[in-house]
Amino acid sequence: MPTDTTLPTAGDDRQSLHPDPEVDFALIARRTATLEFAWDIERSLEFALFRTYAVPSISGLLAKTGEFEHRPQKRYDDTELILAEPMENGIDSPRGQAAIGRMNAMHGRYRISNDDMLYVLSTFVCEPIRWLDKYGRRPMTADEKRAWVLYYRALGTRMGIETIPDDLAGFERLNRDYEAARFRSAPSNRLIADRTTELLLGFYLPRVLFPLGRPVVRAFMDHTLLDAMDYAPAPRWLRGLVHAAMRGRAVALRVLPKRRKPLLLTERKRPSYPGGYRIEELGTFR
After folding, report:
1. 115-133, pLDDT tens digit by residue?
2. Average pLDDT for residues 165-176, to the nearest whole number?
3. What backbone torsions phi and psi does residue 163 show, to the nearest 5 degrees?
4. Could you give the CA distance from residue 250 to residue 11 in angstroms, rounded to a whole number?
5. Exposure of 252 by Cβ count < 10 A (0-12 exposed, 13-18 middle, 19+ buried)?
6. What's the CA gap between 248 and 3, in Å, rounded?
């Protein structure tokens, strides 16, 4: 198991070399998430979380906490920040360790099965790769995919998750098998999905336009996910339009200048934390 999970600073000479995914996986994953595909990775992880809401044992727990119903923006900010801290600062950095410790403390309050934890981890691995295959200016390279897998293996190990797959094929197999066995319709699925949809639409649209935006969100969902959410599919013409627009975006990105400065989620201004945040105060408490 590679052990290089800290990240070089912005001025480190290693950034000008060709990193080895077996050793420098954290650096490659950070570049992938913050520089190469910043917008795409963030969107793909949002839809990765949507997939976890199709599992009644997961959506039921989220509904029980009340966080999505009463504080959806804070729940979103907390999740994104806790995951971004180790990605952007290093899993074994002080901030990375503090964020993982905060996450483990929250999870430790509930009886969450290893299978559910493994599945959520698999969505973080598989969904960004699938998204970039469909909508990115290019797919991930083999080195980027390997580094992505190793980064999330390292994160999962620090979360105490057991029997983590060794490679992408293992994650994909686990992901497909789990969804086939566990995706089921439940009221909590729809509740959490509705709250999340409203939150995401609020980033782009005034509330009066939400009815127009909801089918667009569903246009990104496959029938298996839609069925588990009790959602009607988006009209075929709208799905075609959305996918054509995303392919057009990918073509435009290939000719536009690449991002030169990393987009760091930990530096984004947050409605939940207008004065800044402290890692130890993120998330929920007893």
Report:
1. 999 999 999 999 999 999 9
2. 97
3. 55, 45
4. 30
5. exposed
6. 40
Please give the structure tokens belonging to residue 42: 């963030």
| CA–CA distance, 273 with 266 (Å, rounded to integer) | 11
Using the structure block, give the residue that is written with the tokens 């002080």.
94
Integer Cα distance of 176 and 174 in angstroms: 6
Helix, strand counts (H, E) of the chain: 13, 0
* CB-count burial class (<10 Å; 0-12, 13-18, 19+) for 119: buried
Could you count the other beta carbons within 10 Å of the beta carbon of residue 188? 19
Counting every residue written for the chain, the total comes to 286
CA dihedral 22, 81, 213, 69 (to 10 degrees): 130
What is residue 33's DSSP assignment? I
DSSP state of 220: T
Residue spans per domain, the chain? 22-259
Q: pTM value?
A: 0.90
Q: What is the pLDDT of residue 36?
A: 95
What is the distance between the alpha carbons of residues 194 and 188, in angstroms, rounded to a whole number?
A: 10
The per-residue pLDDT for range 79-101, each reduced to its tens digit, is 999 999 999 999 999 999 999 99
Report helix angle 72-89 to 38-52, nearest 10: 130
Pair 44, 33: CB distance under 8 Å: no
SS3 230: coil
Which residue type is seen at 156?
G
Determine the 3-state secondary structure of 273 from DSSP.
strand
Contact indicator for 52, 227 with CB cutoff of 8 Å: no
